[in-house]
Design brief:
Elements: E1 7-13, E2 21-22, E3 26-34, E4 37-40, E5 50-53, E6 57-65, H1 71-76, E7 91-92, E8 101-108, E9 114-132, E10 140-147, E11 151-153, E12 159-166, E13 174-176, E14 192-198, E15 204-206, E16 214-216, E17 220-223, E18 231-238, E19 261-266, E20 282-293, E21 296-298, E22 301-306, E23 309-321, H2 326-332, E24 350-357, E25 365-382, E26 390-397, E27 399-403, H3 406-409
Antiparallel strand pairs: 1-2, 1-8, 3-6, 4-5, 6-10, 7-27, 8-9, 9-10, 9-11, 9-20, 12-18, 13-17, 14-15, 14-18, 16-17, 19-24, 20-23, 21-22, 23-26, 24-25, 25-26, 25-27
């Protein structure tokens, strides 16, 4: 049997020049594989004629404790040059439209014998959230992902190997493999699971052996056409373990609790948010993004040929104890004790900012999320006998920026 302590998850960005990395602070990873086999019957027979195996549908859910690092956001968006503390644009929702990535889990059993690798290729983000359940709760991130393939790597093919090559000047097209590749048990003379080329301009293309884009054997892959500074990424299986499967991250925060964040809600005007825009007495807060994906197949091909997002929905929910009407006053765009707050006159352009620090001293800003153009969709409350009266508000929009640059997070 395999315990969680021997379940070592790793993710591999396919686009961009970023490297693979372990998935830190993961609390649960839940794959859901639907095989989509269709039973075929016909007139004149009692039993089924047979089954058509259509493209599987893969759902994959990941829950992490917040550790203050923006790295995983960059990995799933296939960007290394966005979101950092010197970046002037931040990661936006459009950055999640076309990127895809692999997740693998290296498994070792109770007898300390390597059992195999669970491999989920070509996943895309279908939604994510960051939530604080109560003032003392840990901040959690959740990601929902979709794909069409799942593989169990075992026997001589038990290790997934990832390798990256950046072409130097001249004809630097012959890549020596780090490990001895093992041929596919299903296809003779096929060693590579995937070969990807990323040009210096950032154009991503999967190369085809059938189209003679490359040749391969157990020790070498030769790219037919390559240009200086092209990045080639290779995925293959081996009986030899990769040099790195999981690196324990002891540098980032163990976890970040609700007392280590700042939350602001305000209507943009002149200048950045101030202490008067800070929301006090909050009991819970969450920010959720849902993508309406349109990932397209084509006739004559079993694989996705185009990835995209039709619409993005950002939902912000906040809950508090009834002591004042700060949230309603903010959404009305008026000062405290304005007089009458008519809910039909609430704003359609609120901004919500969640800033994450490494501890409750709030001395070190790590990164933040800023949702703009928010419109309230519901205001509620909960009154029960002997309980303090609660209230909540939900807002909805279409824009979100994630960045470690505080100037970007607070820009108006």
């Amino acid at each position: 049997m395999v315990k969680g302590s021997k379940f070592k998850p790793r993710m591999f960005p396919i686009g961009g020049t970023g490297d693979d990395a372990e998935i830190d602070r993961a609390q649960s990873m839940v794959p859901d594989v639907t095989l989509n086999s269709e039973k075929i019957k016909e007139l004149g027979r009692v039993a089924a004629v047979g089954y058509i195996k259509k493209t599987p549908t893969i759902g994959y859910s990941l829950t992490q404790l917040e550790n203050g690092s923006i790295e995983f956001w960059q990995k799933v968006a296939n960007v290394t040059d966005k979101g950092g503390d010197s970046d002037v644009s931040g990661i936006t929702l459009s950055d999640f439209s076309t990127p895809y990535f692999d997740i693998a889990a290296y498994l070792t059993n109770d007898d300390d014998v390597f059992a195999g690798t669970l491999y989920y290729p070509s996943l895309r983000v279908s939604g994510f959230s960051i939530s604080i359940g109560d003032p003392q709760a840990n901040v959690e991130r959740s990601f929902d992902m979709v794909g069409e393939a799942a593989k169990i790597l075992q026997g001589d093919n038990k290790y997934l190997i990832y390798q990256k090559h950046t072409a130097g000047s001249g004809s630097d097209n012959e890549i020596t493999l780090d490990k001895l590749a093992v041929v596919s048990p299903d296809t003779a003379l096929e060693y590579m699971l995937r070969v990807v080329r990323i040009t210096s301009a950032g154009v991503v293309s999967e190369l085809s052996k059938t189209d003679a884009d490359y040749t391969e054997d157990a020790t070498t892959v030769t790219i037919a056409s390559i240009t200086t500074a092209d990045t080639i990424k290779l995925w293959y299986t081996s009986a030899a373990a990769p040099d790195t499967m999981f690196t324990a991250n002891d540098s980032d925060a163990v976890a970040i609790a609700g007392d280590s964040v700042d939350i602001f809600l305000y209507i943009p005007g002149s200048g950045k948010p101030t202490s008067s825009d800070y929301i006090y007495r909050l009991q819970s807060a969450s920010l959720e993004v849902a993508f309406d994906r349109e990932d397209l197949f084509e006739i004559g091909n079993k694989n996705i040929v185009q990835r995209g997002v039709k619409t993005s929905t950002v939902t912000v929910s906040v809950g508090s104890i009834v002591e004042s009407f700060t949230i309603e006053e903010v959404l009305r765009g008026e000062i405290a004790d304005y007089g009458i707050i008519d809910v039909t006159k609430l704003t359609d352009s609120a901004t919500f900012i969640l800033k994450v620090y490494d501890d409750n001293t709030k001395a070190n800003f790590k990164y933040g999320l800023m949702a703009t153009g928010l419109s309230p969709t519901s205001l509620g409350g909960d009154a029960s006998v002997d309980e303090y009266v609660k209230k909540d508000a939900t807002l909805e929009g279409e824009d979100l920026t994630i960045s470690a640059n505080t100037d970007i997070i607070e820009i108006l």
